[in-house]
Amino acid sequence: MKLVTWNVNSLNVRLPHVIDWLKAHQPDALCLQELKLEDIKFPLAAIEEIGYNAVFEGQKTYNGVAILSRSRPEDVSKGMIEFADEQKRVIAATIDGVRVVCVYIPNGQSIDSDKYQYKLKWLDGLAQYMARTIQEYSDVALLGDYNIAPDDRDVYDPKAWEGQVLCSDAERAAYQRILALGMQDSFRLFDQPEKSYTWWDYRMNGFKRNLGMRIDHVLLTSGLAANCMEVSIDLAPRKLERPSDHAPVMATLR
DNA sequence: ATGGCTTCATAGTGAAGA
Hints:
There is one protein chain. This protein is an alpha+beta fold. The protein is built from six helices and 14 strands. A six-stranded mixed sheet has the order 3-4-2-1-14-13. A six-stranded mixed sheet has the order 5-6-7-8-12-9. A two-stranded antiparallel ribbon has the order 10-11.
């Protein structure tokens, strides 16, 4: 089973990349973030045409999440009852017996901003939501753009980013609280190349110079983690014309 | 150098992303 997360930074712009990628890799579930379109504009026909189902929770201009899957998604839920939010950042569905949760965690902008406080409260809500979800479902995968670099090795310049948004102690502690519910960072189950990142700034030739951050993650409950064979970041889409600034992260399970 | 790019909403610039 292949589970993937990819922040596409506008599904409207990135649809050709997404379709090509689905055809090439045939994942069982692809979690998308930053659709930046309303549900009425969701490109359902193009996705169904290549044999995929889709459930989605979009909004105009910002945010928006979706799960694309080969199997029919069951028991779909949108948002979190633990955190009332106008912003569309959470969707979940059961796919082939796995509870797949797709999240677009707030960016936080800077640690002295209101958006940072919103991010921390949002993460409190997510911890409660995940505690309930893990109780309700045995096998849970939490995929998405976390906007958190868990460790200094996930940052191209840890000194420059020390204490900054994406790297602050409070954000990293919130990330650890999710792990403490019984989840594992699937990427770190395996030896990985040094300087592995999932996002690079569009500016300053960030990708060519590998000035990146690892902020997109696939967390798995223990039973799923035990069956995880491989996790990799696919750099190919980041090299295309008009790429997303994020790369897909793919976990392969037995 | 507090910018740099990209997207969206909008019709010249501004917000937001990370």
